[in-house]
Every structure is written in structure tokens, then in C-alpha cells.
Amino acid sequence: MAETAVCSSSEPTPDVEKVMIRDISLAAEAQTKEGDTFYLITQRWWQDWLEYVNQNQATITLDGSSSDRPDSFGLTNLKRPSAIDNSDLIYEAESEDSPIGIDLHDTLVEGTDYILLPQEVWNRLYAWYGGGPTLARKVINSGVSQTELAVEVYPLRLQLHLMPKGDNSSIRISKKETIGELHRRACEIFDLNSEQVWIWDYYGRRKYALMQDMGKTLDDANIQMDQDILVELVDNSNSALGGCMSSVLENGSADKETTSVLVEPSKSGFSIAGGFSASKGLSRNCNSEPSQFQGLTSPGRESDNTYGISGVTTRGSSCGLTGLLNLGNTCFMNSAIQCLVHTPEFARYFREDYHKEINWQNPLGMVGELALAFGELLRKLWAPGRTPVAPRPFKAKLARFAPQFSGYNQHDSQELLAFLLDGLHEDLNRVKHKPYVKSRDADGRPDEEVADEYWANHISRNDSIIVDVCQGQYKSTLVCPACNKISVTFDPFMYLSLPLQSTTTRTMAVTVFTCDGSALPNACTITVPKQGRCRDLIQAISNACSLKHNEKLLLAEIRSHLIHRFLEDPLILLSSIKDDDHLAAYKIPKFVKNTKFLQLIHRREERETSNAQSTIGWKPYGTPLVSPISCDEVITRGDIQSMVHTMLSPMLRTESVGHPDISETNTLLTAPDPSQTTSSSAACRDSNVEDSVQRNGGSSKSVTLPKLPLQLVDENNACIDLSVGEDKAVKLSSSSMSILVFIDWSGKLLEKYDAYYLENLPEVFKNGPVTKKARTEPLSLYTCLEAFLREEPLVPEDMWYCPQCKERRQASKKLDLWRLPEVLVIHLKRFSYSRSMKHKLETFVNFPIHDFDLTNYIANKNNASRQLYELYALTNHYGGMGSGHYTAHIKLLDENRWYNFDDSHISPINEEDVKSAAAYVLFYRRVKTEDASVSNGAQSSVDHIIYSRK
Questions:
Q1: Whose CB among 258, 269, 695, 916 lies 3.0–4.6 Å from 882's, allowing a Cys bridge?
Q2: pTM of the model
């Protein structure tokens, strides 16, 4: 996907490049306006370029001044970077011509994975170096007042569903585009006449509102990332669409009960209050949902009231009991800040002279501004007095460097905390010029030696008060399932994110159908990651049904006996598939190109119960079958007859027919066995497959096949009888990937085929009798930790490249704690998200306040000291997803007393009231014991680390 290099014939010197880019950047940034274009460039390449142009004398800062770099003296000349390579930012499967364009990885973080360059800067670098692909993004207005400029790195990704055809497509479109533009693009993608199409806000797979205001923006319509949009074919002539198509509309509409135009509801009840955004950590994503909950707390605390009254009266000169005013749903920020400023090591550090440790040139940092803003806010909160502080200067800096937290919407306290810890670390990193370090493989060396080597490499590039206090080290063990190769690495961590349930998997039932008549439909039950995606489900089914190398699976959701949608996008979240949905997986050839899919829809005649002779009409029933049709060949009516015969051949009745429950024909992760069918059925299938193969070679066998009552829906929505004129060519619709064919099952036809296998499609998950005993004890924090450390296979998208097999493998992974920090931050994963629902776990976790003993969880057995921790702070989240509120419980260590920090209101609480089901992020501090000689690899005294540095 890389673009052709357009390198200049005469390469400028590093100094010339540096000065030119600096001047262009300063000029462009001062003139940035809505509609301007910025370009993503991989942080890896940008870092190489910075090191290349800064290898001589001085570093030029953002304001144009220079600072000497005596420590760079003696560096060898660095090689000029190669062509720009942005391939690590994108999914390789997409092309620029597809409706979704070149798609970025979902979890990119600005400053870590990429940076944004003004158009003039990109043009200059591209002229010098070439490469690509080019990743352009527009500047839009955002924020409550719509006056804040931000780069829309992640435009809306929408799932278009064409009904009743069943086609779907994913597109990317700016949230500032209009409904009219969405309507136009939907018609273009599906090759439809705009007058035939209605588009619906299909949030949660319900028709919420007919999108008919063509001038309204998608942002104003509250359309969200990864939302479904229903593209509905309508008949403007007020007459039936035609015999068989009217049957589809009548019986196949997923929401036939919702036919009137609804008033568009506010979906802010599902806003990201307290939860992760769809693109976690993106500083310029600009996809935050507008919140309607500006009055979450009392009006006195929502406004910037400098006369706010604290619940604590002034007692002597005790400090640290100062509240933070809520500036409008900023309780998520206030609670996280209070926990950090009441961490003793940080309180001491920022109240002393920390300016000498600010790293002004770190390209990964915020040029020291975040550290300065946090330090000033901490000093105000520790100053004598009780007047609440309005954190406006800090909020402004936060919005500048992390626009995802701009405005006055509710956000996730833990996400903010993670950003602050990482940002403060980079701003205060004592390493001014990071050396290149390559970790060696363990090669059988003792774990202690390898772990110390990894930690030393980490410290050589990352050395700050944040690392001193908060960073620990994992031991990560990967085992190849094929050759048993063991790979051990030792990685740093800033906090632990623990699951609240002992299991993070989900059981799903899917029925597998073949198109070549090789096997009966077979239901398999598989286990997938609960927060996984469709590609995980397809991989699990492939393993369960022993999919051949030349086959692939086409996954579909069945509703009302019709294909509601094909689940072709591998990134669809499994949480969007409900337990009472019905799924079918169709085995199709893998390497056939230029195909459409024949959908065989079954219908049977319904009669009135009071009168056996009176018919109501033909109604869809059973499960549709699917078979690919090549568009490169002429297809006749006889060809479709042969295809359908082949598809139905496994169900030809024989003398010995049983009716096993289709939902019980396979067990957990057990592949179906095609040899279990009767020999006569197999013979029929072989004969029919042979017939279909030979029909173009002059064989007359296909002529002897009985004509099936088939009707094809042509591109004009008219029905064509396929039981006559077998040599007539069939004109395939150019506007749809699906070819609809109806088969009408008469009583006589049902005598020849056992259609039982098309019925009773099992639900994704059906609750059986309740056998589990109710939990009598609350969930323990230790149990959550054990679930986090439990060995489990990697999810398919994280397949590991085995250096011994030279292939990607689904290795098993085991995490162990190796080195613990002075302050251990534990995040309880209460929030789960999908496209159609957002959920909060209200599980009560029994966490220890004193003597949190992690000794037995440390893999480093040479460390004989006890690992004891004591709780001193935590954040709480109360309420639901859309209207939640954050507070903090904090223990003032000097007073040995707990307080509740609720924005500007502070009140004392009893220790026994600290535990609740609202606990979200826990802060533990190491207990100093006589045998505690090892902390995070340096001296155990953080005070010594802080004050001994020059």
C-alpha cells in the first residue's frame, strides 16, 4: 500500500530540514482553521527523523530558541531516514477505493503511535522522502460551543444494512457531513435510485427515527461511532412491490411493528459517562457524545461558585482538605486529581522544586506544560484554607493536549488517570535523549538475570518520579501450541486492570450449512472472548467444523426466516449479537472471485386452522441457504435448478431417518463428522454433485432431475418461474450482491425431502435450568487478580509469531507479577461497551483496606520480603451509564482519618464506609516492613531517589 517515493534529487542537510519544518509548522499552526487538512505520520518514523535532524549542536524548541546539548557531543552521524512508512497505522485489508477507505487501527494514540502534521509540513516531508500511504484528516469545530478546532482522526464508521435484500457495507463519513450526503453515498454504494430509499437511524437495531432532514449534520442527529443505519427500499407507487417481494417485505422486516416515523430520541442516556470511548485514548478523535446531564450534582456545585462551602471547618493548619469546583460534569477529573495529589510521594515532589526535572524537549511529552499545570494545582490544593479551587487553568491545558477530554461532557475517570500518569511521566522524564535498546532473548538464562536486564533497559529510556512511584514489572510467558517454544519477556506496567467476573468468555451456538451438498446442517457450540469480534467467532467455528484450506465461512444473522444481515465486517463486536439471535454460517469456496450469493428462501403454504381448504398464502419459514454464483459465466434457469438440487441433496429422504435435535448434534468445540450420514444419502449427494459438474459437458443426467418450484426475484422485483425454460439465461441484478430465489414447499415435496434440518435454528445462547448456587460471599479482590493472571490463549487478532515455527500461532499466555511499585493502582473493569449497548457491572468487590498481601503472587521467588499494601485512596462511580457521578475516598495519613471528596464538598467518613459497590480505581501504598528491601528495582526509599538526584 506504500506510495511511490518522490524524493528530491538534491537532499538538504539535516539542519536545513529542521529549520524549514520548524518555520512551516509555526506559520501553519497560527493559521489553522476549520476545513484544513492534517496528515498522520507514524511516531516511529517521526522519532527517527527528529534524531536525524537533531544530531548536531543544539535543539530548537517550539518557540524558536535553541538550547545546548553538551551530552550529544561525540554522536556519530545518523543515517538519513528511509521513505515514510505508515503501514503500522492501518489495516492492510482495505484499499483507498473501498467505501471505508484506508482504515486506521482502532486503538492508536497520538504521541505514542502517530503525530499530526499540517498539510504544508506533510507536503515538504513527502517531497523529500516519499512513501505513504497518505492519511489525511480534516479540522472540524468541536466542543460545547462548536468553536474549538480539532482534527477528526476517526470519522464515523457506520454499518449500512440494505433491506430487504440483506446486503451490508461499512463506510467512513465525517460527523459534520449532512444526512443528505449519507443518503447520497448509501444510494451510490448499493446502486439505488434515491427516490426508492429511506434511511433510518437504526440505533440498537431499532427504527428510532426516519432521517429525512437532509441538511442536518450527523453530529446534530446524534449518530455514533459503529452505529447501524437501515437503508430501506420503498415503493413510491403505493402498490405492492410485486408477488414475491411483497412477501419479503411483509414477513421479513426486522421491525415491522415500527412503521410510523418516530421522534428522534436523545441517546445521551447511553453516553460515555464513566466509560471507555470507542477509540480509547485518542487525543483528537472528536467523537465524544454530547451529554444532556449538565445537572448531575446540585446546581451550586455545577457552576464555578467561588463561595462554595466545604463540609469541613478549618482546624489548625492542617492542609489537603481543599475541594475542587465542578465546572460542569468534571467530577470524573476532580476525583482522579484528588487521588493523585494525596499520594504522599507526589505531594512532596510537586511542593518542592520539581522544575529542574522538566523535560522541555521530549517529543512524547507536553513540553512541560502538563507538569507545570498539575504542579500549580497541587500546590493550591495543599495551601492552607478551605476555599474550593476552580481547576480552570488545568482543564484548559488538559483540553489542549487531550481534546477527548475537552468540553463539559462526562468522561471516564480511569482513562483520564492513565493519560495523566503517562503525560506527567513524559514531561518529567529525566532521560533527555533515549538510547536505542534491543532486548535479548532469554535463551535459557535465569529469570532474575533477564528481568533485571529488561528493567535496566526500560529505566535507561524512562526515568521519572512516575516510574519511581507507580511502575512495576510483569513476567509474560508465551508457549507455542505447535512446537512448545517458550518465550519469556518482562514488561513494565503502570496499573492493573482487573476483570470483575471469573470468566471473560462467552458460549455461542451457530449452525453450519454447506452449499455443495457434502453434509447436513450441523450446530456447533463454541467459546469466544466475551469482548471479542466477529473474526474471533469465525475462527472458532472454522476450528470446530474442520474448515478446509480452500473454504471460508459466510456468517449471517437470521430473522423471521430471512437473512437479516451478513456479518462480513471482521471488527463487528460480538456483544452486538444478543443471546436470543439466530446465526447461520455458510461454507463457501475461498478462492472464487467475482461472485454473487444465491439466497434460497423457503416458503410454505399457510392455512386457516378452522378451514383446511382455505389458504392464507405462502409464508417464509425455515433457514435460508446460500450458494455462490459466478458472474463470469452465463447462468441459465436449469443451472439454478441444479444448484438448488445440490444444496438440498443431503436432506433427500431415505428409509432410515431420525430426527435428532439439531441443537444437540455437536458438542463444545467438536467438529461435525460428515461420515455419520447414511450411505444412501451419501450416494444421492455424490450423484447430484456429479450431475452438476457434468451438466456443461454434454451429460443428460441433469435433465432427468425433477423440476423444483423455484421463483427468482429479478432486478425489477418481478418473479420469474424457474421450472420452465431451463435453457433461458438469467439476468443477474447489477445493484445487489444477493440473488433471491424462493422455493415453495408443497406437501408432496416435503414427502421427498426431510426439511426438519432447516427448522429449529437454535438461539445463540439458551438459558437452561438454573443449577448454580447463588453466590454467598462477595467477589474478592484476590479472585479478580487470579482471573487476571490466569493462563489463556491469545485472541486471534493477537496471534504470536513463533520464531521457531516461523508462523503465527495462537499461543497461550500467562502473566505473573515480578516487580511491584511503591504505589499500586488497581482498576476494576466495571464498564463494557458495544455498538448497541453499554453496560456497567454493579458487582461488590471485597477489597482489603489493610494488609493487602501480594507475596504469593510474585513470581520472583528470590525476593523473600513480604509484599504488603494498604489502601489510602479510591475513586467511586455512582449511578448508571448516562447519569453517573464520581467521588473520591481519601485517607489523610497525617491524621489517620478518611474523608469523602465530592467535588467542592468534603466530609469525614468512617473506615467501614469506604467499601462499596461503587469502588472503581483503588490506590494502594506499600507498607514499610523490616524485611522490605526490594521495591521496584531501585532503593526502597523513594525519598532518597527524589532528593539524591542532581
A1: 269
A2: 0.45
